[in-house]
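User: I'm curious whether this sequence folds into something compact or stays loose and floppy. Could you predict its structure so I can see for myself?
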Amino acid sequence: MNFKKLLATAMISLIAASALTGCGSEGDKQANGGKVQIEYWHVAAESFGGATVKELVADFNAKHPDIEVVEKYNPDMYKGLTQNLQAAIASGQYPDVVQMGYSYLNYAGENLDYTNLNEAFTKSGDPDFMQNNFLPNVLALAQTENGIQVGLPYSISVPVLYYNPEIFAAAGLDPANPPKTWAEVTTAARTIKEKTGNIGFFMQEYADNWAQQAIIESNGGQMLKKVDGKVKAGFNTPEAAEAYQLLADMVADGSALHATNEEGFQAYLSGKLGMVCTTIGKRANFEKSANFPVKVASFPAFEGKELKVPAGGNFLMIFSKDDAKEKAAVEFIKYLQSPEALVKWNTGTGYMPAPKGVAEDPNGFKKLVAENNNIKVALDLMPYLVKWASFPGANGLQAEQMLIDVRDVILSGEQSAAEALDQTAAKIDQLL
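Assistant: Here's the prediction. I'll summarize afterward.
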């Protein structure tokens, strides 16, 4: 199904849903005993923090008797949410608070009818909330190329290497000394395959290019570049092709898996796969679901090259077009960014907190770090954060999808990484 059909399908379903539920502010207040009802759109599936979202919403609603937050899960991660959001806006239905992926930052800033965050906080009586609670470089994660604050950073994740220490031991590998470089990953994956019969490695295949950006840029490549002030594809370089080809070669020799996330993650959790490269945001689910002690190692580096990991996760945007809803949305965002709520969010997912000082709270997040080395590994990667590449312009979603599609072409062995990336870069440049 192409992009236009996807968008049309999403629009039809959302318009139908809107017709059934309605979103009028005054009607909402009357139907809910005078409460202001707001919608919170997110991408947290049941295995990815969904239960924690429900817990947070219930806690907020209990503490704010005049507000009712209704959470809405959007499948297919940030791509699916963004398509649904476009369709909702086109039909005049605006959610109030939205989790937007960092990779859609520029697209959202240029193409979506969002509410100005600075103005919303000013009207709520707390104009300095963002400046008082966030470091400038963290706020920049949700700023467009021209410096506009589109949203407020919320969830921050880094890609890490989960591994099964029992499979490592069975393969004759040292569980206390996991791979540190990609050369060591490939060797360990092949050893696991040869010695145990299990697949050695799987890298997440979400509907985004986050993990692939990490391996490309850690090898000295880049996702985007500027030429004469215009953004163009930057991933058609020898460094990018080498990094992507490394993954394809592992799939080709049977030491790595090319599959859906559900298949790859389940293989790991059931003790049939040695290593998984994915977000620290899966930590809580993995630790709860695995039948072995889950271990986390740093994202692997390339020998002699600087490690670079894109800031994954999401920022919070407001779309309310009603003063009462906008004020309630601000209150809900402030609650989500509180130390208490962020500890719950990390405990239920693994995401790192964005506000300054939260990580040092001795009664909250700092205690979690002391008790769980997997969290510490993720925190140690924070100095290597770079911005998640975000395609600009009206065709940004199509450009992102084309780069997602080429992943399957490369990993399935249909084309070499160099050839496939060259062709995709040329098509994306035409779009942009």
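Summary: The longest strand covers residues 36-42. Residues 3-21 form the longest helix (19 residues).
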